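From the pipeline queue, job 12 of 40. The input is one protein chain; the requested action is below.

Action: predict structure.
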Amino acid sequence: MTEPRARAARQKGQLNFEKELRGLLYAHGDDSDPLPETVRVLDEIVTDFIIETCHAASCHATFNNRQKVKLEDFKLIVSKDARLLGRMTELIGIEKELKQMRKAFDAEEGKVGLERGGPGRKRKRIAREKEEDEKGDAEGREQQKIKEGEEVGEGDDRLQDRIFGAFNSMVESV
């Protein structure tokens, strides 16, 4: 493996995280337009940290006779810094929760199980087509209401109730 600091793609003047670092500096009390040298130095520090962390995780994976780097390799590398490990664990947990919520929301909307193949395929296709026809009728009625000047948006409340219900059920299960 090569040395992490020997990077071929390092070019003068090219910043990887300029926009994010400017926002971060401003959020922590710096001027809204920080000095370019400050942004450049911070960008170099962040880039070096990312490269070194990835290199160390890759070395750990190679040591364990694996070609792919796993999440556990990164956890081992950042385990020396408790704050960083805690933040990483928190973000991984949030990602899992969001994935479960999306899955529950998709299941509630009837999107799960409508793939091709499997038992009951015809019934599911018929149900899906019926649902699409009903949506088309509902859209036509909304268009008619708009033309007549009536208020539209009652369906939005029902959708919000369903979303909040799915979210609450996910929160209770966690």
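Job complete. The chain is about 70% helix and 0% strand.
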